[in-house]
């Protein structure tokens, strides 16, 4: 039972490069989320989706884009990477009750 | 808008001692409250939740939390700490209106267990 799977686990980018963080879940959950975690700051919501074809901005969406073409997949796109995007990114899904999120193991991104 | 405040970014307790992690919430409507735990190099996992009903809720690994409306608090406790409890703990809140699935997290409390 895979749950929520994120790739890659680690990535180093140069300033101005672009990349996509992949997230897939096998629990048939409607809700999916992208959070970033910075030391001492907790988790901040970047984007979320309530179902295929529907996405919306969270608290810190600038510099990111998402799409949700299927129930399973929710990729996060970073355009023109900046050092401020150095962080650990978590994908999560929910479908069993409000606030009951299942998290992936995270993707650690460094922008130099 | 709802929010949570976790008092103490670092807490250290001796093995076998009481664990108390503090969380206060702010919400204009009755909240749903959660505690999540994050072990090193892992994602978060749900420890326990309060939605409605009994104000004392029990979670996994012997943890429990009590919802106190008069104090706007949802503190996490465990009677006897174990070395395996060393982790970071996050309090979170969601407004209890149907369809709002966005959790707001606190800044976290790192728990260290002293042998």
- Supply the number of helical segments of chain A: 0
Write down the overall geometry of chain A.
Answer: globular
Give the termini separation of chain B: 41 Å
* Alpha-beta classification of chain B: mainly beta
Percentage of residues in DSSP E strands of chain A: over 45%
Shape descriptor of chain B reads globular
Share of β-strand residues of chain B: over 45%
Which bin fits the share of residues in helices of chain B? under 10%
Average pLDDT of chain A, rounded to a whole number, is 94
Share in helix of chain A: under 10%
Outline the structure in words.
- The complex is a heterodimer of chains A (about 110) and B (about 120).
- With about 110 residues, chain A is an all-beta fold.
- Chain A is globular, with a radius of gyration of 13 Å.
- The model of chain A has no long low-confidence stretch (mean pLDDT about 95).
- With about 120 residues, chain B is mostly beta strands.
- In chain B, about 0% of the residues lie in helices and about 55% in strands.
- Chain B contains no helices and eleven strands.
- In chain B, the strands form two sheets. In chain B, strands 2, 4, 5, 9, 10 and 11 form a six-stranded mixed beta sheet that branches. In chain B, strands 1-3-8-7-6 form a five-stranded antiparallel beta sheet, with no helix packed on it.
- The model of chain B has no long low-confidence stretch (mean pLDDT about 90).
- The chains are: A mainly beta (about 110), B mainly beta (about 120).
- The interface between A and B is medium-sized, with 24 and 25 residues.
């Amino acid at each position: 039972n895979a749950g929520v799977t994120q790739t890659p686990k680690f990535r180093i980018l140069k300033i101005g490069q672009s990349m996509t963080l992949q997230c897939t879940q096998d629990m048939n959950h409607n809700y999916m989320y992208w959070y970033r975690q910075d030391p001492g700051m907790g988790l901040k919501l970047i984007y979320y989706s309530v179902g295929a074809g529907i996405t919306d901005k969270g608290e810190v969406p600038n510099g990111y884009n998402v799409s949700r073409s299927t129930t399973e997949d929710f990729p996060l796109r970073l355009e023109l990477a900046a050092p401020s995007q150095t962080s650990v990114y978590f994908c999560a899904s929910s479908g069993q009750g409000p606030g009951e999120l299942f998290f992936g193991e995270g993707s650690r991104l460094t922008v130099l | 808008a709802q929010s949570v405040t976790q008092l103490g970014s670092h807490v250290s307790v001796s093995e076998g001692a009481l664990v108390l992690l503090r969380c206060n919430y702010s919400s204009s409507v009755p909240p749903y409250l959660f505690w999540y735990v994050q072990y090193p190099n892992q994602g978060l996992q749900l420890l326990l939740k309060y939605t409605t009903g009994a104000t004392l809720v029990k979670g996994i690994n012997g943890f429990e939390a009590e919802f106190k409306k008069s104090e706007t608090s949802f503190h996490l406790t465990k009677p006897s700490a174990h070395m395996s409890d060393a982790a970071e703990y996050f309090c979170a809140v969601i407004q209890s209106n149907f369809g709002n699935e966005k959790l707001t997290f606190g800044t976290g409390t790192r728990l260290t267990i002293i042998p």
